[in-house]
Structures are given as C-alpha cells and as structure tokens.
Amino acid sequence: MHKQALIPYLLLLGDSALIQGQRLCEWCGKAPALEEELALMNVGLDLVGQARNWLEYATELLDDGRDADALAFRRDERAFRNLLLVEQPNGDFAVTMLKQFLYDAWHHAVLEGLAASADERIAGIAAKGLKEVSYHLRRSGEWVQRLGDGTEESRRRMLDAIPVLWRFTVELTAANDHEVQLAQAGIAADPAHVARRWQATVSALFASVELPLPKAASHFYLDGRQGLHTEHLGLLLAEMQFLPRAYPDATW
Amino acid sequence: MYAQLVETGVKRLKTLEEMSPEERAFQEKIDAEIKIEAKNWMPDAYRQTLIRQISQHAHSEIVGMLPEGNWVTRAPSLKRKLQLMAKIQDEAGHGLYLYSAMETLGADRDEEIAKLHSGKAKYSSIFNYPTLTWADMGAVGWLVDGAAIVNQVVLQRTSYGPYSRAMIRICKEESFHQRQGYELLLTMMRHGTQAQKDMVQDAINRLWWPSLMMFGPSDEHSPNSAQSMAWKIKRQTNDELRQRFIDQTVPQLELLGCTAPDPALKWNEERGHYDFGEIQWDEFYEVIKGNGPCNQERLAKRRNAIEGGAWVREAAVAYARKQQNKNAA
C-alpha cells in the first residue's frame, strides 16, 4: 500500500518548504536592500503556502485527527523530515543565497517530476508550485552569480559559503527505498533523474562564474529523512512552535 | 503608516497679492484642484515639504516592518503566518512606491534613508512601541493600519499627482490587511480561551493611545498645517481625522467585546461624535524626539541591515558592470 509510504515523502516536501520559509522569515528587516526584503518574503510566502498544501495532504492520509497546523506546530524535531540543508542558519547573504539556490535546484527538479505524478493531487500541487519555484531558482541563481563574480569580498564570502553547506547536499542526490518504490509506481519524482538535474543545474551555474565545484558530498550519520537533524532544528522549532505549545487549547 | 509633524518651513501664508506670478499661477492651479506633476513649476518650500512628508511616509513603511517581523517567526498557525508574511511583503512594496514618488521631486532615496539612519528624518511614532504578544499583530493591523488608512484615504486627493496615485494603490492593499487584523482579534475574542481574550484587551490597552497619536499634534499645536492645507498636501486637519478614526473605531471595539483605556470616551449626542480623553502629549513628543521604548532598537536594526548589506549591493553593481562590459565587447 503506497499510501503509507507516501506520508514520509509528503513530509519531506512539506517540512523542507516550511523550514526554508521559516528561515526566510528571520530575514525580515535585515535584508541588504528593500527589493530583497520584498523578494525574501515573497519566496518565503510561496514556500509556506506549498508546505501547507503538502501537509494537508499528509493529514488526510494519516487520518488521525491532526490538521496541517498540528503537523507544523506540534511535532518535535525527531518527527520532522526536512532536508538538513534548509535548517542551516542563515549566516550572511552569501550563505542564505547559496542555500536557497542549492535547495531551489533540487526543488525544481522534484516538482518537475511530480507535476507528472500518477497521483493527481500531487500533480496538481506540484504544477502550481513549479511556477513559483522557477522564479525562486532564477533569482537565487542570479544572486550566486552576482556574489560569485561581483567584488573580491563577495567572491570570498561565496567561496566561504560553499563548504558550510556542501556536506548537506548529499541528501539532494540521495533517496531511500520508499522513494525509489514510489517513483517506480509513478508517484514520486525519479530520484536518479532529480540527482542528474540537480548536478547539471549546480555545475553549470558554478562554471558560469568559475566557482569551484566540490566533489560529491558523502553520507554521514545525520539524515533529515529519518528525523536525524543538526542541532539547529530544535531551536528553530522552539521559536516557531512557542505559541501553539504554550496555549494548547487556543484558537488562532 | 504615514507622516506626522512635517515641517513646511513657512511661518505665515502669503496672500495672492504677495505672491510672484509663478507662485500665484501655482496656487490657482491648486485651488482649481489640478494635480501638480513632477515637471511642473512648484515653490521650493512645497517641494521640500513633500520630500519630507513622502520620505517620512516611506520610512514608516520600512520601520513598520520591524514590529511585525518580530512575530512572523512565531505566528501560531500556517494561515496567520501566511497573512503576516503577505502583509510585510506589501509594506516593503509600499515603501518602494513611496520612495519612487519622492524621487520624482528630485530627492535621492539613499540620501533620504541616510537621514533616517542618522535620526534627522522621522517615521511614524507608532513603530517605537514594542509588540509584546501575538494579539499585538491583530491590534496593529486593526488600529494602526486603521489609523493609517483614515489618513491615506484623504491623501488620495493630495495635490501632488505622484503621491496621490501612490496612495490609491496603497489604500487598496492596506484595507485588506486591516480587515485581516480585525478578524484575527475577533477570532481570539469569539473562539479563544480566557487567556487569549485577556491578551487582546491588553494589546488594545497598550496600542490605543499610540494609535491616536498617529494623527499628529492637535490642531492648535500644528504650526505647519495651515500651509500644508493651503497647498492641499493635507486635506483635513489632524483633529478632524483623529475624530473620524475614533468614531469609526469605537463600534468595532464594541463588536469585539473590548473596551478602550479611556474613561472619558463617550458618545456625544449633541456633537454627533465620540468625546474622548486628553492624549499624553509629553509622551508623543518624547517618542518623536527619539526617546520612545524602541526608537534605538528600530534605528539600529535598519542601520545594521543597510550598512551590513553594503557588500551585497556593491557586488550587484560590480557584477552588472562586468556584464555590461562583456556585452559591449
């Protein structure tokens, strides 16, 4: 029964979008230009909206009385399935933009695959999200180029950002058995295809501004798909979930 | 969000006879309700007053993102988070419209922003109050945006065309967010727990008076109003607008089942308006001078964002230049 296998996959998609959106919220009032305040919030808004769609579908399959808010605001970090990459701290604008780009390149390839999913619900959510993510990817890619080939300082910062984030990219080209099976059933995006697309997008953009492409990251103990996160996620959730946790009977 | 206490630099209104032919032609145009456009002749004091007012208005949009940004990471549901993010995004957009309108007058946005950061330029006093609970997000949407809308609706008819057109666009978006803010409070009051209801009343208690201060000093203490009114930059006095805001807000307050922290607030049948208590003007002037609860934090955050982001903007310029050179080659 692929419905049960589908739940962790929907959580991977929903939680990743939600956590990335949450990180973008942290930029409010701190962006390097007004246009960027607007753009960062715009991208964050898209992602939280997509997260809500995925989480709502997950709650229907879970069918345990929880709604999307319960999934977002009442799960502990061990139950979150987001990519490790998106929970990383914002750092400076170079870290934020490189993180966004590495995620967008994956996200775009995944949604492209999902737009053709045999599961109509998934295909619908993905088709809508794909339009948004095409914009995200163009924007973040342009920033990686601007910073990578801007001034000496911006290039140094972009070079510094690469090793901070690169080891977490292993999750963007890997998949677990469930995902492979879901892909074979025509429901999930084909992980091998996603990996190829991601590598092609990233290497082409890095080459365009002569950023050194590190060798493929290798697997290590942590694994977002299994809820084995970095220490950053717990703090992020403490802030994000504070109100629903403190007022469990409240209606917002 | 809007501008309070804008200097016109004019001590006394000139009569038509005292005006130069250019000034007289300008004033006649104003009197005939013809909009002034960027390329038209205008008195220097009109230009400078508008630059001050529009930039103050733009700065208010930008500083106004901070009290809400304070809660965007802690919004209690996905729906509320999305609403708040959309609102903050719109505010950044409003700031951009307004800086553009201001630039039609020959001012430079970076220079005006530098004046904000050095404390020379002002922004709305309301954003110097802290947002302490989630209910503040509703109260800011309802009261603060409500007060801003009362001001801005009138500014849609302001005499300077680009400012007037910016106001028309901004009012549409602002009204939507104001209703959302009110709905947020209504949800907490109608479906919430006692703790939530207390939170709403507490937010109103803290933000009520500061919202009334958004209309600026009382008419008897507004030396700049006469000239702004004669130029039709302002269309109604501070006290008129404040009264309108109170008259329209008290029924909404009652619908919420909340009270105002003003024992003198009472319907006056004879006037056909609500009477209300005296505003703490000392507090207003202290906040405007920079001594409010969050003035330092707000300015420090804006300064850090712009100064800390200089390398990003420099990179963008350097990259654009390189691309241009490549294309030229």
In short:
Chain A: Its EC number is 1.14.13.149. Chain A is mainly α.
Q: Which characteristics define this entry?
A:
heterodimer, A: mainly alpha, Ferritin, B: about 325 residues, mainly alpha, 13 helices, globular, phenylacetyl-CoA 1,2-epoxidase activity (chain B), PaaA_PaaC (chain B), oxidoreductase (chain B), Aromatic_CoA_ox/epox (chain B)
Outline the fold blueprint.
The complex is a heterodimer of chains A (252) and B (329).
Chain A: H1 2-25, H2 34-62, H3 68-74, H4 84-87, H5 93-114, H6 120-148, H7 152-166, H8 170-173, H9 177-184, H10 191-208, H11 232-246
Chain B: H1 21-31, H2 44-63, H3 65-72, H4 78-103, H5 109-117, H6 135-155, H7 161-191, H8 194-213, H9 225-230, H10 238-256, E1 266-268, E2 273-275, H11 281-291, H12 295-308, H13 310-328
Count every beta strand of chain B, where a strand is a DSSP E run of 2 or more residues.
Answer: 2
Order of helices and strands of chain B: HHHHHHHHHHEEHHH
Principal-axes geometry of chain A comes out as: globular
Question: How would you characterize the largest beta sheet of chain A?
Answer: none
Q: Which percent bin holds the helix content of chain A?
A: 55-70%
Strands in their spatial order, largest beta sheet of chain B: 1-2
Rg of chain B (C-alpha, Å) = 21 Å
Give the CA-CA distance, first to last residue of chain A: 36 Å
Query: Can you summarize the main beta sheet of chain B?
Result: 2 strands, antiparallel
Our measurement of the CA-to-CA distance between the termini of chain B, rounded to an integer number of angstroms, reads 48 Å
- Report the order of strands and helices of chain A: HHHHHHHHHHH
- CATH C-level class of chain A is Mainly Alpha
Which residues of chain B sit in consecutive blocks of at least 5 with pLDDT less than 50? none
CATH architecture classification of chain A: Up-down Bundle
